[in-house]
Design goal:
The structure holds two protein chains of two kinds. Chain A is mainly beta. Chain A is built from five helices and 23 strands. In chain A, a hairpin with a 4-residue loop joins β3 and β4. Chain B is mostly helical. Chain B has two domains: 114 residues, no CATH class; 79 residues, Orthogonal Bundle (Cytochrome Bc1 Complex, Chain D, domain 2). Classes of the chains: A mainly beta, B mainly alpha. At the A-B interface, α1, α2, β1 and β2 of A face α1, α4, α6, β1 and α8 of B.
Chain lengths: 377, 228
């Protein structure tokens, strides 16, 4: 009985302690920018689709993914690079290396998981676990060469400052092949969109691995170890793996038939008009973004008849693997209900499938994205 | 983990009740995983809890969610899923393996319950809009106010008396209290104080915690470092 009373009392206390203003439909009606709160503690927040009509996603509405949540804000944190010499670097020490700024898409491997059928466990991202930013930092290759790369090294193991809630929970640990670590686009970044990284985005340092899924972009970067073998542990050996061959939806896949995911596939979305929009007849502007981790975008096509006929959209901005371009297309629509779908093809010849390939953790959804809108008379 | 989940949570609840009714309890001579030292005051918390069925009747799936899941993540992590009972069972087993205090006998009822409230037929999930400024502010450091310049020794004593049994030696997290080291909330003193005084989930309220004790806790926890 006492236990019951205790639990009841604590449930009331928990309800009282809940943040009251985070549930608001009211929030969406104001003009202030919002994120979609998939998980509030720790934060898993998505960018609303309407922001994907422009080259750069503003930092304040850029999606946030947490395994365990951020550590405390501490600009004096150091980064350790293990090698034959080894380095311990604080933020000012990076001034001794060449500064690099590049534009790249950051996308969570699980973006689109909620669209998989049958459903799979994990944060139920729809489209909003992606964004494009400019990233400023130094090349990881420069740091590794200064630290000294030991003979026989083949992988680089990455650890962050974020702590699991209990010692029995596996730490978030990833590795990337040494070749990818030495790629000149792989950065240790301290700035995003021209401003120092915010805590939610990895301050003071995060890794930037253009073209590769977000699980490699280690936030709150703490140590980089040059090793001979791929990292072990839950986040390498169980999570973030895809079937080697496509499998039937709902299939159980033997562990031996799974391998770590790396490069995200070709993808595009419709940002405008929004789902359910009501528009006046006449010229209607369609827009969205298209990108591929593997290669620049070659073309983006739009269909208004379920894929029977396609029209080519215009592309804005510089093309490149791992960065997105804005696509635009105008139609003269008669009154009625319209459904527009988009598909992209990259320069390596990969095209989005109508339906994404199902996999047990719902990674890399890239089916055709479609929205319906009404044109009034 | 065997029958430890229910027995552990029950013993913990009794301990916390004892803590509510009196001055802070002395530091238990054993780590949190052994309920024995605090069980001596009552037969209900015998170190040999008997069949798990006793506890199973005691803990509804909703209670298990509050006690075993929400120490580490919000309920929204569960509510947005659309999983079958078999998928939920695998998920719960994974979390048990990571230390979630769920008893073996609670797994099936919990999985069935979750497949009802967050199953394939549960309908669309409404994802709330969060003002971007609020999301950022939720992690941002705030002034210490009345909780500045705490006494580390008082903080250590307060931790041992009030917190250690759940959050573990060194505050790195234990069953069921999560890690407290290097967390943003340590630099959000007012929110920290509210959490201590009002409690949350399985964490009991400590309305009697003084400003000095809370300031001390912050000083102590900020000074502790990570394991490696």
């Amino acid at each position: 009985m006492k236990r019951r009373d205790f639990l009841r009392a604590s449930a009331v206390a928990a309800a009282a302690a809940a943040v009251p203003s985070l549930g608001g439909a009211a929030a969406g009606k104001t003009s202030e920018p919002v994120l979609l709160g998939h998980v509030l503690r720790p934060q898993d927040l998505a960018t609303p689709l309407e922001w994907f009509d422009r080259p750069i996603t503003p930092t304040d509405v850029f999606f946030v993914r947490s395994h365990f949540g951020a550590p405390a804000l501490d600009p004096h944190r150091t980064l350790r690079i293990d090698g034959t010499q080894g380095l311990i670097l604080a933020l000012p020490d990076l001034a001794g290396f060449e500064k690099v700024t590049l534009t790249a898409v950051l996308q969570c491997a699980g973006n689109g998981r909620a669209l998989q059928r049958p459903r799979v466990p994990g944060v139920q991202w729809v489209h909003g676990a992606m964004g494009q930013a400019t990233w400023t930092g130094v090349r990881l290759a420069d740091l590794l060469r200064r630290a000294g790369i030991p003979p026989g090294a083949a992988h680089v193991e990455l650890a962050g400052w974020d702590e699991p809630p209990m010692p029995t929970v596996p730490r978030f640990l990833r590795s990337i092949p040494l070749e990818r670590a030495l790629d000149p686009t792989t950065l240790v970044a301290w700035a995003m969109n021209g401003a120092p990284l915010t805590l939610a985005h990895g301050a003071p340092f995060r890794l930037v691995v253009p073209g590769w899924a977000g699980d490699h972009w280690m936030k709150w970067l703490r140590s980089v170890r040059v090793v001979e073998q791929e990292a072990r542990g839950f986040y390498m050996e169980t999570a973030y793996r895809m079937p080697v061959q496509p499998v039937a939806p709902g299939a159980t896949v033997p562990a031996a038939d799974m391998r770590p995911l790396t490069v995200f596939p070709v993808k595009s979305v419709v940002a405008r008009p929004g789902e359910g929009a009501r528009l006046r007849a006449g010229a209607i502007a369609l827009a969205g973004v298209a990108f591929s981790g593997a290669a620049p975008i070659a073309r983006v096509e739009v269909t208004l008849d379920g894929g029977q006929t396609w029209a080519r959209a215009a592309l804005d901005g510089p093309a490149g693997a791992g960065r997105w371009q804005v696509w635009r297309h105008r139609i003269a629509a008669k009154p009625g209900i319209w459904r527009v779908a988009v598909r992209a093809t990259d320069a390596a010849g990969s095209t989005q499938p109508r339906d994404a390939v199902w996999n047990p953790s719902g990674y890399f959804w890239n089916g055709w994205h479609a929205v319906s809108f009404e044109v009034a008379s | 983990m065997s029958a430890a989940g229910i027995a552990f949570r029950r013993a913990l609840a009794l301990l916390l009740l004892a803590g509510c009714q009196s001055a802070p309890a002395p530091r238990p001579p054993e780590p949190a995983h052994s309920p024995e030292p605090v069980a001596s005051s009552g037969p209900a918390a015998s170190p040999e809890p008997g069949p798990a069925a006793v506890g199973a009747a005691d803990a509804s799936p909703e209670q298990v969610i509050v006690e075993a899941c929400q120490s580490c993540h919000g309920r929204d992590m569960l509510s947005q899923q659309r999983l079958t009972a078999a998928q939920w069972k695998r998920t719960v087993e994974k979390m048990r393996g990571w230390g979630a205090p769920v008893d073996e006998a609670e797994v099936e009822p919990l999985a069935r319950h979750l497949a009802t409230v967050a199953g394939p037929d549960a309908g669309p999930d409404a994802t709330p809009s969060v003002p971007a400024a609020e999301a950022e502010a939720a992690l941002a450091p705030q002034p210490d106010g009345p909780f500045a310049d705490g006494d580390v020794r008082l903080g250590r004593e307060t931790y041992d008396a009030r917190c250690l049994v759940c959050h573990g030696d060194g505050a790195h997290g234990a069953k069921p209290g999560p890690n407290l080291i290097d967390r943003p909330i340590l630099f959000r003193a007012a929110e920290f104080a509210e959490r201590v005084r009002k409690g949350t989930g399985l964490m009991r309220a400590s309305p009697d915690a003084t400003d000095d004790e809370i300031a001390g806790l912050l000083a102590y926890l900020r000074g502790e470092t990570r394991r490696q």
